[in-house]
Amino acid sequence: KFDEAFQHYAAAAALSDRYAGTKSMAPSMLTGLTARLQYERGDVTGAEVKVLDARELIETTAFHEAFRNAIFVVVRAAAMRGDIPRAMHLLNRAERLSWERGWGVVVAMLLVERTRLLIAAGQISEAQALLPAFDELQAKTAAANTISSASIRTWRMVATGLVDAAAERLEAAAAALRE
Prior knowledge:
Blueprint: H1 2-20, H2 25-40, H3 44-53, H4 55-61, H5 64-80, H6 84-101, H7 104-120, H8 124-128, H9 131-142, H10 146-166, H11 170-178
């Protein structure tokens, strides 16, 4: 299925390059998605290079879904290399841009990534300190957008479960994921 999806994205990218140009919004929308497919297929370096080559365009023109996938790829690639400071720097920048744009769901996903990195570094209390940010996000989106609110709630459940599991509160972790 990855190959088939990748072929569709490649065809779309060729059309966007042809009709909109390589440095336009259209290709930036596809870059994050195709990079995520490459990453999931195991081509971590190729996916990271694809995003880094188009980073400025992605940050300035991509909608939240393409942006989210692009950031996922570069953060996970940095973490896999053991370059946690780089991964955190990328998260900081992406979180700032996402807060500015009102992309609560993207912020929530980025907070989960930060939680994962902190737990992996043994910084459980720092990871737990992130949990109130989910409540802030939930409060900001609850009245305006119930779809975003539900997604943020799901990301909060994941983060809470990760923190509880890392703190060896397994029953609490299971309960957080059952909410």
